[in-house]
Amino acid sequence: MPELPEVETVRRGLHELIIGRKVKAVEHDTPKGFPNAAADVEEFLIGAKITNVRRRAKVLLIDLSTDYTLVIHLKMTGQMVFVSHPSDLSSADLTPLERERTAREAEETIGGGDDGELRFGAGHPNESLVGELPDKSTRVTMTFEDGSHLYFNDQRKFGWMKLMPTLEVPNIDFMKKVGPEPLDAEFTAAEFAERFKRRPKTSIKAALLDQTVVAGVGNIYADESLWGAKIHPERLVNTISSEEFEKLYEELRAVMNLAIEKGGSTDKNYVNAEGKRGSYLTFARVFRREGKPCPRCGTTIIKFKAAGRGTHICPHCQVK
DNA sequence: CACTTGACCTGTCCGC
DNA sequence: TGCGGACAGGTCAAGT
């Protein structure tokens, strides 16, 4: 589910919504979902104020005034949804800014179909995917002093949330191994190509999905960027030219920036911090578009399995 | 060591 | 309509 653009969208939403709020109570389900001793939660989470919301790769970091941090991985179906009042989930009372954004997205959506099909609804940004919370997928409920709530929902229970000292976060194995942020201004095309040399004999798609090469790429943006760069996903890394790496670098950044602008991709579960969908999939060129024409050449897009994942390509633009 | 596959879970969809 | 199997956006452990 959430890849870099989705987690970044959630981060931005939470940054707006929860900083400065003070935690009053926390309820959680299994030790797996929140594997901290109750004593830690009591001592370092209850009564703490949210001071910052950060992101590294696909990991969300909520910093607390106790110098502890909530480290959160949404994995496939995790959601972090803030609710100040139950009625917030209806779209009736949008702010003027939200209203403007919604109108603009709707306009772009109508004009955005490249196959003559009016695709509307599935990616409509104003559509709320969550109903009354908590629901049966809710695994952690955090209540703030002002009565508002932050819910961690996770249907498939792959996600997790951990409480740890802020200073220890960089020492987590994942943080030590994870590659650079692809959207960082200082991250160059040359460094991008260089990172792949650690996986010379694997497929380019498997390497893109490897978080130690570059951070934050998942199945959607791997397929989208490979289509953009006209590279077949099963080609081995050591057969990719430097020109192709440069193109892939540009495409990956472009596609992720566009996705962030569109509030991420919602296929089934993903929602932002307000419980609303992202609309990127309306603009996707190959992902989940098997059987439809390639926007570039009209050839029918096909789906198959590569690097153990559902993979979408244009068989004309992307050859082995 | 490098790389690939299966497991972790629940829900949904598709074919019989 | 019911049931079994395949599949789903991520990551890690175990296997080759």
State the major sheet: 4 strands, antiparallel
- Spans of at least 5 consecutive residues with low confidence: 86-123
Task: Report Rg.
Answer: 20 Å
The strand order across the widest sheet is 1-6-7-5
Binned strand content: 15-25%
- The general outline is globular
Structural class: alpha+beta
Task: Estimate percent helicity.
Answer: 25-40%
Would you count the extended β strands for me?
10
Number of helices: 8
Provide the descriptors you would attach to this structure in a database record.
DNA-binding, 8 helices, four-stranded antiparallel β-sheet, alpha+beta, 28% helix
Secondary-structure topology with pairs:
Layout: H1 4-18, E1 23-28, H2 38-45, E2 50-56, E3 59-64, E4 68-73, E5 78-83, H3 96-112, E6 138-144, E7 149-154, E8 160-165, H4 173-177, H5 189-195, H6 204-209, H7 219-228, H8 242-261, E9 302-306, E10 309-313
Antiparallel strand pairs: 1-6, 2-3, 3-4, 4-8, 5-7, 6-7, 9-10
The protein binds a DNA duplex (16 and 16 nucleotides) through α7.
